[in-house]
Amino acid sequence: MSKVFAVIRREFIERVRTKAFIIGTLLGPVFFIGMAVLPALLLSRETAGRKVVVIDAGSGEFGAKIQQALAAAKKGSGADAEAKFLPTLLVAGARAEEVRDSLVRFTGLSKRSDESIDGILLVSEGGITKGEVTYLGVNVGSPRDMEDLRRLLTPVMMTERLQRAGVDPVVALKAAVPLALETRKVSEGKLTAESGGATFALAYAMGFILYISLLLYGTQVMSSVIEEKSNRIMEILVSSLTPFQLLLGKVVGVGMVSLLQIGVWTMAAKLLRDFQPQIMKAIGAGGAAGGGVPFMLPSMPTDLLIIFLTFFTLGFLLYSAAYAAIGSMCNTIQETQQAQMPVMLFIIMGLMSMFALLNEPNGNLARILSLVPPLAPFVVPVRHSIAPIPIGELLLSVATTIAGLLLIVWVAARIYRVGILMYGKKASFRDIVRWIRTA
Amino acid sequence: MAETVVAVDGVTKRFAGHTAVKNLSLRVDRGGIFGLLGPNGAGKSTTIRMIMNIFLPDEGKVTVLGSTAGSRQLASRIGYLPEERGLYPKMRVIDQIVFLAEAKGIARSVARKKADDWLARLELTDWTTKKVQDLSKGMQQKIQFIGALLHEPELVILDEPFSGLDPVNSKTMREVVVEIARQGRTVLFSTHIMEHAEKMCDHIVIIAHGEKRVDGTLGQIKRDFGGQHVALAFTRNAERASRVLQDRTLVSKVSDFGATAEVELAAGESGDRLLETLVREGVGLSRFQIVEASLQSIFEAKVGAEGARATAVREES
Prior knowledge:
The structure holds 2 protein chains of 2 kinds. In chain A, helix 6 (about 145-165) crosses helix 7 (about 170-175), helix 8 (about 195-230) packs across helix 10 (about 245-275) and helix 17 (about 390-420) crosses helix 18. In chain A, helix 3 (about 60-70) links the parallel strand 1 (about 50-55) and strand 2. By secondary structure, chain A is an alpha/beta fold. Chain A has 2 domains: about 1-40 and about 195-439, no CATH class; about 45-175, Rossmann fold. A 4-stranded mixed sheet of chain A has the order 2-1-3-4, sandwiched between helices. Chain A contains 18 helices and 6 strands. Chain A has helices at about 1-15, 20-45, 60-70, 95-105, 125-130, 145-165, 170-175, 195-230, 235-240, 245-275, 275-280, 300-330, 335-340, 340-355, 365-370, 375-385, 390-420, 430-439, and strands at about 50-55, 85-90, 120-125, 135, 185, 190. By secondary structure, chain B is of the alpha/beta class. Chain B has 2 domains: about 5-215, 3-Layer(aba) Sandwich (Rossmann fold), CATH 3.40.50; about 225-290, Alpha-Beta Plaits. Helix content of chain B is about 35%, strand content about 30%. Chain B has a 6-stranded mixed sheet, sandwiched between helices. Chain B has a 4-stranded antiparallel sheet with strand order 11-12-10-13, with helices on both faces. Chain B is globular. The interface of A and B includes residues 3 and 234 of A.
């Protein structure tokens, strides 16, 4: 056992010491900060409001209302917040199209000229009847600008149409509030405090964490085996350690590095969430709190956490063992591209099964998928987050996954036993079958 | 009778298309230095790997320290330096040695202490915390050597331990090997450098093309080989000497090294006529000595000059 610890320690320490690990671990939080702060920062540093000319092809009455609504829109919530739009009203009547064409020349010259405008809003009597407004501008591709326009213009248009239909807009708008569907999850006959969406999002995120860990670290197990083959230390190792000890030590050591990195990232994300206002203030983006909280960490129920950690560990061990076997069959990283396809397929199938069971988390398909060892680590936590899985079924799922893990480790150790000393020759499928049978 | 620490019985190993080792049997007794000799490709490394349980023999049986279970169970009692030398290039020297010792079951603190002693002895103390990749090839070989010996194994198996070392380092290593043997431990090493084997080994096995050609103690081998041998060293007109040595009525076999030569006298010759002929031809001699057959000449005779020459060329390069 102490030999396995020696391998674990070596894998762990040598990896944690590398520049790649340190940089990667530090870049994670930087990336989070970027995600959290950048949108708010960009929002607060934006240039002056959009200059929009409202051309009214009618009497000008409706155009004035629109101008008013646009002028009232502010960036952020403070009293000194800047205006989003700087609207000008042109009552053009029948000459609306002519005026529009002459103004198009001035649209989008913002950097060069004071005469420049950002866009033209065209309203007409016909438009009110059809519920239609035309906007011409350089920023039509900006989802946020278009969303602002839609949001600001909708009530003006509705009020106008209601008035014309002889309905009191105040009463009508009061009645037209969208329905808020409040959800609270019932779990095992008890009402919980969580809303359904948050836990699902969490389980879904866990599936991705497993996916990313496998891509980042499962493949590291593979390249580490290849490295030991290519620098020829393998022969000394196998004369002192059993292939199983080597395989176990490697997989656990690399797994711990993965957990450490994910742990650091999670802590950083949590700290960032807790201190977001202070951070915002420190970098001078305080006024833009209206930008919203870019990410939320929902609290994790204990049972889900246990299930996640169990299946994360099982899944990581299972896939890493498979990756180690692939590493021992190949001599270069290039060769592994092809050889790792079957493993990649299972990982992608695992990810896709997470979606497949959304509608029927306790259906037959979901039950079967939970018993397939390579898929269970993805499926079970998601299933449990949507609808709790009975304990018996959970245990069965754990049991089959462990059985599958042992089988894969057994096969992998056999391939590994022979493959690690095969230099310069790529193993054929027949070779591999022979190794499994004879090793 | 001495205790047998390694017994190889009728072992055969085939690889795709060729037989690397053919029905080979040998016995290594406790204590002393055992030399496994042979030209490149003779099957030395394959034999050693079978002894180390890295390869499984297709036929036959290998017993090490009384067990057929394989070397891994006996890892703490065996030290192994493979022919394929490798270390973790990015690891620090001290960590590397400690890790190798831990893999043999030595406690970390003990391993550290011993590693320091060994590094001091092999004059590598300044390199303790350097990365392995910063070391020269010779230094790396010393590290591997330490890795094979640190746990004080009773059986030390070294595959071509002195190849690629400069004369000074080579000498240091040989002194270590001799010291181990003096402590009553057993050393098995393979080499194709006859000079080393002749100076160090108590018992020698020569293999070629996977088969055993010679097996015995050094003295026994030389006695069995028989013949009257003369060692010669030339000071001038060496080219004339080589003409003389082609006369098969004078000498039956020649190992001509240019400035020196070793010859086996033809049957019935005492050496007087050879000396007389060489002097008459104007060959300058600094040595003319009746000697036992050298291991080199036995090797050439048993393996064939072809194999021996291939070995010699490989060694020089």
